[in-house]
Amino acid sequence: MQLPNLLNQPTLMQTYQWITDPVGFMESSAQTYPDLFSAQLIGFEHGAVFVQHPQALQTIVMNERRLFPALGKENRIVEPMVGSQSIIMLDGDRHKRQRQLMLPPFHGERLKAYGQLIIQLAQAAFARVPWNQPFTARRVTQEISLEVILQSVFGLQSGERYQQLKRLLTSVSNQFESPWKASALFLPVLQQDWGKWSLWGQFLQQRSQIDQLLYTEIAERRAHPDPERIDILSLLIAARDEDGNPMTDQELRDELMTLLLAGNETTATAIAWSLYWVHALPEVQARVLQELRELENADPIAKTRLPYLTAVCQETLRIYPVGMLMFPRIVQEATELLGYPLEPDTVLMGCIYLLHQRPDLYPEPKQFKPERFLERQFSPYEYMPFGGGVRRCIGEALAMMELKLVVAEILSTYEMALADSRPETPRRRGITLGQSRGVRLKIVGQRQQATPPVPDVAIA
To answer: If residue 215 lies in a helix (H) or strand (E), which one and from where to where?
Structure first.
């Protein structure tokens, strides 16, 4: 198969670079081929074309049903975590049906109901952080995000099952946190079950325990339905498709794991990045605080509509998007993209990271400048941190609300400072882009009354 702008390094070397240093791999490739390039990676039989030109991305998304569909089988890297019935793994009518069932809980009044919960969970998490001691912000934001998932999605707040799920989900989320551990997701040869002494064996054991807890919870909810519950699991159990059919137990389980992967990991990382930038750049912090002080209405939804706070969160997702790539698209018939011929079965990877680093769209792309989102309206093909088309992230609205509310609440409550003078840099975390050190901060004071710190609790 002929691929456009094919990199000339050996497949093993390209795969190694992609796993261990995805930012370096993408940026060095884009220096030679700024609009699209092709890579030979293990796991892609015919290679993959990385696309970072907005016009080309628009062409892909607008023709995704006929020419460039996103086939679930190409997302096999995440199947061990989310399951075969996840919306990520489905195609065509099955994908459409599942998406229609899942969308309602993430919009409208139901979404607003989660606002105060997010604020309370952020307050509780940071109240346990000791003052004047360095802590890793990513671990605290992961705690907040996981609690949001457990309470708003799973509908659990206490009890033995809640505690077991919290422990297991945290462990699974951290299972592939480094590039070396993440290599097990990319290289099937490493997916060997050698019991608790192997990384994959530990993952399978924990996954089995999570499954047992989730299926028990689903069975109890089906046996004792409560129309007053507004958690997403309850809403999904009650949902019916056009033929009046509910989701199966496996579909529910797989969608819960999908929401965990897409909602917990990504949001926790984005919040940590935002906290880094507002403390690395005093002028940005001062402007956010001024906007918060001028807000007369303390309603959570009012905070999410603040222009500069919104711009800060948008720039956070622009400069280091947690999701580096769109879902793979597969060329269905011979065609062209930006004048390059493409053969059927070619895999196209919309490269969100490189799109967001284009200097023709974002002058000085390495600089954190929220003002760019106040001065210009970017198209859905120039700025796409949540992907695009029929595969656009379902939880986008909830994620953005959580990001804004946590940053606003913590920044207006605590005075914090960076505890590490070195610039924070991006590093692979599983299939996402996280931080190399997790953002080291320390609380040095408070701006408004907060829950007193617990001095003997350490969050590393």
So the answer is: helix 199-223
Judge contact between 244 and 263, C-beta under 8 A: no
What CA–CA distance (Å, rounded) separates 137 from 27? 27
CA 159 to CA 324: how far, in whole Å?
A: 37
pLDDT tens figures, 408-438 = 999 999 999 999 999 999 999 988 999 999 9
Question: Is 453 part of a structural domain of the chain?
Answer: no
* This prediction's pTM: 0.92
**Any idea what the CATH number is for the domain that residue 217 is in?**
1.10.630.10
Q: Is residue 2 part of a domain?
A: no
* DSSP bridge pairs for 429: 432
Does residue 125 fall inside a structural domain?
A: yes
Residue 204 corresponds to which tokens in the numbers above?
A: 């399978």
Q: Looking at the predicted structure, is the pLDDT value of residue 454 above 80?
A: no
Region for residue 439 given its phi and psi (left: phi exceeds 0; alpha: psi -120 to 50; beta: otherwise):
left
| 3-state secondary structure at position 37 | strand
Which run of H or E residues covers position 256? helix 249-260
Asked if the structure places residue 457 within a domain, the reply is: no
3-state secondary structure of 128: coil
Cβ neighbours of residue 367 under 8 Å, at least 6 residues apart?
none
Number of domains in the chain: 1
Q: How far is CA 360 from CA 354, 379, 382, 396, in A?
A: 12, 14, 10, 26
- Exposed, middle or buried by CB within 10 Å (0-12, 13-18, 19+), for 449? exposed
- According to DSSP, the β-strands at 48-51 and 347-350 are parallel
- Domain span at residue 122 reads 11-446
User: Tokens 């059927």 label which residue?
Assistant: 344
- Taking the C-alpha atoms of residue 221 and residue 368, their distance in angstroms, rounded to an integer, is 46
Per-residue pLDDT, averaged over 166-187, amounts to 86
The structure tokens listed for 327 are: 């879902």
Report the alpha-carbon distance of residue 422 to residue 227 in Å, rounded: 51
Contacts 24+ apart (CB under 8 A), 18-26: 18/186, 19/179, 19/182, 19/183, 19/186, 19/428, 20/179, 20/180, 20/183, 20/428, 21/179, 21/428, 22/324, 22/353, 22/428, 22/433, 23/353, 23/426, 23/433, 26/50, 26/324, 26/351, 26/353, 26/354
